Amino acid sequence: MCDANLQTVPPNRVDAGFPQDCRCNMGYSHRALQDYNTTNAILENVCFPCTPGYYNPMLGTKECSPCGPGYFSPTNASLSISNCMPCAPDTFSMAGEKICTACGENAQAPGVSGYPTDCICKPWYTGENGAACSACVAGKYKLEPGSALCTNCLDGQYSTVVGATSNVCQWCVVNAQSPAGSGALISCICNTGATGPAIPWRTATKRSACVPAKPSLRVSRMG
Q1: 203 CB contacts (<8 Å, ≥6 apart)?
Q2: Rg from Cα positions in the chain
């Protein structure tokens, strides 16, 4: 007689006299998960349930089939691929998973993502696909998702915003300059030949911002 979760083929076969005449039911396999893709001997008259993330719709199968990348199944002894459900956006699962794994902080992924590298940094963050994402520092911004580096503010500009979601770079006052990627107003310095604080006149003290120096007058003396 066949043990539990096995049956003869065809069912109720009366001439079955050996353990090898028994076949595992649907949802079960003749090999345990740790023995998949090996040449280990198959135990006769013993079956193993398909673990979550796997399924088997046929009798007498050596190994259960995994849910594909981007799908998961929490069902034990699953009979059908229909139990494999798609991962939600911002999560992923590789083949044979029982749950989907959330992308890292500040990363995103489309639905049915099957690999860690499907998680990419959001527009205002940067980092390798599937790795940690860091906010763009002041003086930089990033408009598109992915692994691209943050873009510097131009020469003569600055921005104090961390994690800028748009180009928020501001120009230094007239007759002032700053290096690319400047993250503070103090980076704006008056050009050679101009004097005054390199800040907008509304926040200046009594002096105007970066005023060109007046040329000195020379008086020639008659000899």
Answers
A1: none
A2: 35
d(CA 57, CA 176): 74
Instruction: Give me the residue spans of the domains in the chain.
Output: 1-114, 119-210
Q: What confidence tier does 206 reach under pLDDT thresholds 50, 70, 90?
A: very low
Instruction: Look at residue 218 in the predicted model and tell me its pLDDT.
Output: 55
